[in-house]
Sequence to fold (222 residues):
Amino acid sequence: MLLAPFLIGFLGSFGHCVGMCGGIVILLDRQTLFQNKLSWILVHAGRITTYSLLGAIFGVFGQTLWSFHNLQAIISILFALIAFYMAAAFIGLTPSPELLLSGWSGRWGKLMRGYKSASPLSPYLIGLLWGLLPCGLILAALVTAIAAKSAWLGALNMFVFGIATVPSLFLVKWLAGKSLSRLWSRGLASLTLMVFGFQFAMRGFAALGLVNHFMLGEFMFW
Fold:
């Protein structure tokens, strides 16, 4: 289960985060507060904390949904449709859902440009706010948190996702000029989501009795 959020975070970040968060990294890098490695560690720790908390919340939500056994098939198919939509959005076939929240993104950027506090905890607090920035990649990862069906596993999924996005953000200045990197990484992240969506679609169809469940040893693929 943890492989999906890791691949979505790692592969997706090299395509999506370079464009979406590259400006944020450059903006923060220009501030005096972010002229040392500790500040960058703290800001990413804050970002991952927010992701983990969101994962716990969505994990509880998923656990509640899955408690209604008659709805499991519909829920599985719905998650599959969301995953397929996000996969299409990664490669530009559908609009990214984060565009619906572009106003909040603009206000967030304005807030960061005006942020002047020099408190030792400021980078961590900025990271917490960064984690709330509307992002299609986060929305895709939260699907895995819902599928985890528990607060603990939901938080763990999003923690793994957050860790997986760190390398691209540390290398964002170099990657910003690598269009090929964005192309192949978006494609692989899209493929990961499609596989994830296919698995959930098949689970839904199996719950409806349209196909048989598929087991490999003790592991149920669907």
User: Anything to note?
Assistant: The CA atoms of residues 15 and 104 lie 22 Å apart. Residues 3-220 form one domain. The two ends are 13 Å apart (CA to CA).
